[in-house]
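Hi both,

Apologies for the delay on this - the queue was longer than expected. I finally got the NAP-bound model through. Below you'll find the protein sequence and the ligand SMILES exactly as submitted, and right after that the structure tokens for the full complex including the ligand.
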Amino acid sequence: MNMNGKTALVTGANSGLGKALALALARDGWRVGLVARNVERGAAAIAEIRAATGNTDLHLFIADFTDQIAIRQLAVAVCDQFEYLHLLINNAATAYSERRLTSDGIECTFAVNHLAPFLLTHLLLERLKTSAPARIVTVGTRMNTALDFTDLNWERRRYRMMQAYGQAKLGNLHFTFELARRLNGSGVTANCVFPGIFNSNLGGTDGAQNWFWKSIAVLFGWALPTPERAAQRVLFVATDSTFAEISGMYLGNHHQLLKAPAQARNAQINRQLWRISETLTGILPAAPSPLRQLRL
Ligand SMILES: NC(=O)c1ccc[n+]([C@@H]2O[C@H](COP(=O)([O-])OP(=O)(O)OC[C@H]3O[C@@H](n4cnc5c(N)ncnc54)[C@H](OP(=O)(O)O)[C@@H]3O)[C@@H](O)[C@H]2O)c1
């Protein structure tokens, strides 16, 4: 297959926006890698997309983003399977209703929404650069909340789901801005896209999430745009030639520029979070205890 000669990787591709993105790319003839954390849900999405598009060049990768070893294995599997990677869409996200820790001792919402895309992107960066022109699109939100650098791991405060979600998602913006700066001149762009509010399964798959998301879906889901519609916003930035050279942007509905919260417009803070994230993901070889870093 691979009709247009392009390869994309979409995280959280078994559901909601990620599945809609994978389907649209498959329909356009892309080779698509779908990342899911559950084999059955991932395989079901592949079967559905194959039936809808006729594209057989679809590849399932499994990784739970609370597990950094799994993310490292995922990156190895992607590089083994894909000689080129032209598009990475960091879409997977969730919100845990209670404070939970990963096996590395990191609060799960922060780990899945911010550290996982940070680590995965880092591990795939060389493949993206050798495939340039290439694009990295991270799906963001408007529910951003300033990060509390004195307590990133929620050890001193009472954990609040929406705040934890908003902080981790603001991490996507800090990450995108600093990444774009570092990638300047490499042929790889990095942008963050707010897809609008849409009907999805956000936070609803496992028992970790709570009534809040489910009630929103039940009460207002019917009135919200579909993930397919939201996907069009992301796809425009991910694939349209208008955005070939655009990097370091926070974009919203109709691809207009959004004003990022003040904290994310501060290059020094972006670098600070970058350094902490390097430590927490073990990218820095001499990383001290991650938890010590979290209590900065
Ligand atoms: N829905 C909205 O209105 C809205 C608004 C603004 C931004 N967004 C953003 O849109 C993106 C997609 O969300 P969605 O609304 O489409 O929700 P969704 O249907 O729940 O999709 C989220 C995806 O992330 C995966 N995921 C969750 N936890 C994971 C983990 N620990 N490891 C690996 N994958 C994991 C989910 O897998 P499972 O199916 O296995 O749970 C699912 O595939 C997110 O970045 C979200 O922040 C959504």
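Main takeaway for now: The chain has a mean pLDDT of 92.

I'll put the files on the shared drive as well.

H.
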